[in-house]
Amino acid sequence: MKKLSLPLIILLVIFAVVYFQSSPAEVAAQTKFQDESVQMIVSSNQPTASSMHENSFALTLKDTSGNPIQHADLQATLVMPNMYCGIIPTEIVEDEPGTYQVKGIPVMQGKWEVQITLKTTSKLIHVKHPFIAD
Ligand SMILES: [Cu+2]
């Protein structure tokens, strides 16, 4: 068996590093938030969103004891960071106790965020869930 040459090995290592860095945390399939009263998980329901089509995101809300938070005062918009192409409204439906579906249409390809605001009795919580639209 032929030995791999050192330059080839170095190249392979560089490719591996670049490859693993190309799936950065900023497009993670899930965004988790937790503070002293609330835990929120936001998940993309599709690996890559489709621009000009409706896409959805599942949002689960629990208190710190793990009980679902129902009828939450939630708002969410779709926004492209660093662009001025508009703030896209979403529809939010609670389909199971404490589980909400956020639906909206990203109007162009690129990097987007679902920007979520949860209003509790004591404060506003802001969570950003990044996603990519093709
Ligand atoms: Cu844009």
Write the layout of secondary structure elements.
Layout: H1 6-21, E1 30-34, E2 38-44, E3 55-63, E4 73-79, E5 87-89, E6 91-96, E7 99-104, E8 110-119, E9 124-133
Antiparallel strand pairs: 1-2, 2-3, 3-7, 4-5, 4-8, 6-7, 8-9
The structure holds copper (II) ion.
CATH top level is Mainly Beta
The CATH architecture would be Sandwich
How many helices?
1
Query: In what range is the share of β-strand residues?
Result: over 45%
How much is the radius of gyration in Å? 19 Å
Helix/strand structural class = mainly beta
Q: What are the low-pLDDT stretches, counting only 5+ consecutive residues below 50?
A: 9-15, 17-25
* Distance separating the two termini: 43 Å
Binned, the helix content reads 10-25%
Quick synopsis:
The protein has one helix at 6-21, and strands spanning 30-34, 38-44, 55-63, 73-79, 87-89, 91-96, 99-104, 110-119, 124-133. By secondary structure, it is mainly beta.
List keywords for this structure.
134 residues, binds copper (II) ion, 4-stranded antiparallel β-sheet, 12% helix, mainly beta, single chain, Immunoglobulin-like, 1 helix
Question: Can you characterise this structure?
Answer:
The protein has a single domain, classed as Immunoglobulin-like. It has 1 helix and 9 strands; from the N terminus they run H-E-E-E-E-E-E-E-E-E. It has one helix spanning 6-21, and strands at residues 30-34, 38-44, 55-63, 73-79, 87-89, 91-96, 99-104, 110-119, 124-133. Strand 4 and strand 5 (87-89) form a beta hairpin. It binds copper (II) ion. Copper (II) ion is lined by residues 80, 83, 85, 108, 110. Residues 80, 83, 85, 108, 110 line the site of copper (II) ion.
